[in-house]
Prior knowledge:
Blueprint: H1 4-23, E1 42-46, E2 51-53, E3 61-72, E4 76-80, E5 85-87, E6 92-101, H2 109-123, E7 131-134, H3 142-155, E8 162-167, E9 184-188, H4 193-198, E10 216-220, E11 233-237, H5 248-253
Amino acid sequence: MPTPASLREGALIAVAVVSLTIGVRSDTVARPAGRMARLPSVTLWAWERREDLRAVDPQRYAIAYLDQTLTIDLTVQSQPRRDPVVFSAQATRIPVVRIETTRQALLNRETQHDVVTQIMRTVREPGIAALQIDFDATRSQRPFYRSLLVELRQRMPPELPLSITALASWCSWDRWIHDLPVDEAVPMMFRMEPDRGRAAQDSADFEIREPLCEDSVGVSTTEPWPHNIEGKRIYIFADDGWPQDWSANLREKLP
């Protein structure tokens, strides 16, 4: 049976643990397991064009659709999706927020807060299964992007998965994303010419080394797919749009 002294000691330890936990930064807390695992293993990207995905089996495929584009200049401007996208009421929906910047963009705390506030309008859409951010941040923009994601994760519902797209180099030889507070980073394994130009001469050909990038892959309907995609979540970009690219050949390649 514990003595009064041991009880006091245990209480002090508990208080210390709580104090340490309160002091932990949100971007270093372990990510809850399985948030992305609840989604279908194949996701169809619906970008800025008219898309009709009503024939897609909602049990097998999720739909990630461009919801709004945020342009950071001296202020933050939001452009909602212009072209309609239709899908079944049972579809697993992943809205995507695209972030772009101008040459004179102000990347400060006020802008960061404004961007997150705009993104939270998308987060509040009823029935969404996850959120994805698409931002090809340059090296100088990385601190801003990191801070933005930390604030966003803090304001999002804890059960809602947060996904980002990633240049292939971020997942290979330029591993700056390892501690971002996201559930996954989807390596874009298509249209990689700009990334190839930035790669170090002695680097491997975009071998995935970053753990955040290991469970998913982004491909297109008109370019060769990587060979090692078994067991990954596959995001497919339709170069000519859906359902035009929804061919029998494509369906045969899917799990």
